[in-house]
Every structure is written in C-alpha cells, then in structure tokens.
Design a protein that fits this description.
2 domains, single chain, five-stranded mixed beta sheet, binds FE2/S2 (inorganic) cluster, Glutaredoxin
Length: 157
C-alpha cells in the first residue's frame, strides 16, 4: 500500500499526461523508470490521471513484458534456455534452482532478494549449461553444483 507521500509523488510524476490512452505507455514507463517496477497501487493513480479504468491500465501493464509488476530483486539469476544449455542438462539446472529457491521463473523470493528469470543464449555456450548471477556467467553447472550454489545464494541473500 502506497502512503500519501508516495501517492503524491506518482501524481506529480504523471501530471504532465493528458486524459486518454495516447499517453498511457509513456506514463507507465515514467513510473517504471522511477521505481524499477509498476507498484500495484500506482495503476489507480495513472488511471485517474488519464481518466481510464484501472482494468485497462492493468491490462496494458501485463501485456508488455518489459513492465515489471514486482520490485527488481537484489540479485537476479538468469537461467539460459538456449539450445546448447538445454542439450547439456539445462533443465536439471532449472529444476534445481526452482526447487531450492522455492520460486518459479519470473518470480522473486518473498523478500525480493533473489529473482529467477528465463534468459536466451548470449553466445557463451562453452559454459553450458549455465546461469548468470547478477549478469556474471556461472557454468558449466551440474545439478549438484546448482543446488550448492542456490543454497549459498539463499543464505547470503
Ligand atoms: S545456449 Fe546457453 S549460452 Fe548459448
């Protein structure tokens, strides 16, 4: 729940936008840029400013995958879903991550310290199967390596 100060800040952020759908994406991107995600409560503020329904704003936010609905995690873990990583056992890595962290793809741990994301091949297939922890390649990983690493990350977080 946003406090009054946060609500006022969002009102000021989107005050320049005129009623109607034309400015909706620009308003959402401005909120996203400020907070790193779209706080649920901010959608009501944006809807009020643009005189749109909250359902319309919510539908737009969920349509665009680049707009996050949850805060960015402190540490982002990308799981490579590319062909080389899959052939070399990437699915075991994914299962191990999801199991130890107790979250699925595109989710954060409840404390938002770790987030798991599905990634595409970045050309570093020599290290397959791999993940990226905070953007740094870690691989090749066995299922056992992954379990150990995920436990360490969970403890550090
Ligand atoms: S397939 Fe994973 S890095 Fe290329």
């Amino acid at each position: 729940m946003l406090d009054t100060e946060a609500t006022l800040e969002i009102q000021q952020l989107v005050a320049e936008f005129k009623p109607g759908n034309a400015d909706l994406l620009r308003a959402l991107h401005k909120v996203h840029h400020r907070y790193g995600y779209i706080p649920k409560e901010s959608m009501a503020v944006v809807a009020r400013q643009l005189r749109l329904s909250e359902a319309h704003v919510y539908g737009t936010v969920t349509f665009y995958s680049e707009l996050r609905l949850t805060p960015p995690p402190r540490t982002r873990i990308d799981w490579c879903s590319g062909p080389a990583c899959r052939i070399k056992g990437g699915e075991y890595v994914r299962t191990a991550l999801e199991s130890v962290l107790e979250i699925g793809m595109e989710q954060n741990t409840p404390d938002d310290k770790l987030g798991l994301h599905l990634a595409q091949c970045n050309g570093t297939c020599d290290f397959a199967p791999q993940i990226w922890v905070g953007g740094k390649v870690v691989g090749p990983l066995s299922a056992a390596d992954t379990i150990k690493l995920a436990r360490e990350l969970k403890e550090q977080a």
